Amino acid sequence: MFHKVAIIGGGAAAATLVSELLERRTSRPLHLDWYAGGPEAGRGIAYGTPSAQHLLNVRAASMGMFVSKPGGFLEYAQAIDPSVKGSDFLPRRLYGDFLRSRVEQALKNAGSFGHDVNVLPFTADSLVPSAEGVAIGYGDGESHAEAAVLAIGSLPPRPLPGVEDAAIASGRYVVDPWPFLANAVPDDRPLRVLVIGLGLTAVDVLLELSARWPNAHFDALSRHGKLPEPHLATASAPADDGGELVDSMRDDPNIRTWLRRLREATTNAEDWRTVIDGLRPHTQSLWRDLPRAERARFLRHARWAWERARHRMPPEVTAKIEALEQAGRLTRGRGRMRSVHLSLDGALDVARVAAGGVDVVQSYDIVIQTVGLNTDTQRTEHPLIRQLVIGGHVTPDSLGLGLKAEPNGQLHDGNDRPRSNLFAIGSLLRGALWESTAIPEIRKQAQALANLLLADDKHR
Ligand SMILES: Cc1cc2nc3c(=O)[nH]c(=O)nc-3n(C[C@H](O)[C@H](O)[C@H](O)COP(=O)(O)OP(=O)(O)OC[C@H]3O[C@@H](n4cnc5c(N)ncnc54)[C@H](O)[C@@H]3O)c2cc1C
Fold first, then answer.
1. Structural domain contains residue 401
2. If you take atom 8 of ligand 1, which residue's CA is the nearest one?
3. Which of 136, 285, 335, 383 is found 20 to 30 A from 148 (Cα to Cα)?
4. What is the pTM assigned to this prediction?
5. What is the CATH number of the domain that holds 329?
């Protein structure tokens, strides 16, 4: 086993792995350095929101932190409010409280297993892996570990092509919606707001800002102008184990065939969601068998339809968004943003290619970009990832899906060979696994990675 491990990152993935490691008895005590990047270790971006409007998009019964206890979150929530049901979509901030309480418990228990842990509220700025271990640079300090795990979530969003620097410098073009939402103050002016993208982050932005800005009008633009699909009010079990569909997909790993098979299966199902949910346990292995050219085809042609069907909205959220549309406060449009220019009067002129290839220019007071997770490690400003890539310590995924890695999280070195002492968990593994961001996937990765890190040498 590794006796000294560094974990880099302050979100749910790091919290889950730390807890998995500290709650085990090992042949020798473990020393853990947790570079949490800030004081509230464990919440990360998704569960750091203070807003009661921001709900989990996974039912309470499925949000447990550990594979061995999938109902753990439901128990926690019911201890606070016995009327909570397993099918409820609860506030994300409550989930953040749950993560914090579980981590605090694990930190407290660590001593009884002989483990020793430092929670460091710093970001790790550099990692240099070698045969002897990993050197970790932070601020003016340096430390060493036998192995390190990157649990840094997705990368900071980058401005879309066509956005002028002046538009960004004006503060009216928002590249990262989360800090903006955290600081947006109530405003009753008749603001004209454009949201680019129509996924779950856009939905969060629309719910929050429409409440704080009661006289604002929102346009939302995406390639297809469609919202995420809604969940059913009650959970429906997968139609079957998906075996026949999965086998037929495995037999012919190409996207055209897969889409045809999926269309057939969803047409024949009582509810299409049961087919998509039935695929979930197989998605990672199907992805692994997909040749690179087919992965690229999926990203070009099927990704957004998959995201809409797979990452759905709770029914109460759907109702709120529909109410905004019916009240005339939200207009959805199809098209592609071409450019954003800061005009002399201080507004943003947005040119977009609308349906039929026609160019349309419209003025907005604020434009907010919500275009999904960024995992492009070749083009990021994230200091640690830049250092790792430029130093040739890792290999970027060539489709922009994180870092090249083994399915167990072992990162590849600059020559695309698996490293024995540098690992990742979560979004950086999208290239290896595709589905690698939600709690049900993360808790499985955390359990498997803890097994690997603590395994006797002969088993590793
Ligand atoms: C808005 C939103 C809602 C979501 N809702 C759900 C849901 O309902 N259910 C579900 O299952 N999943 C949901 N997800 C998926 C979500 O990504 C995961 O559940 C989980 O939050 C991912 O955690 P993470 O630790 O991998 O990443 P993050 O939460 O992004 O945490 C990573 C942390 O690492 C820190 N960090 C970065 N670099 C460094 C460094 N160099 N040193 C130290 N720290 C660093 C970052 O600042 C950040 O705090 C949601 C995601 C988002 C964005």
1. yes
2. 56
3. 285
4. 0.94
5. 3.50.50.60
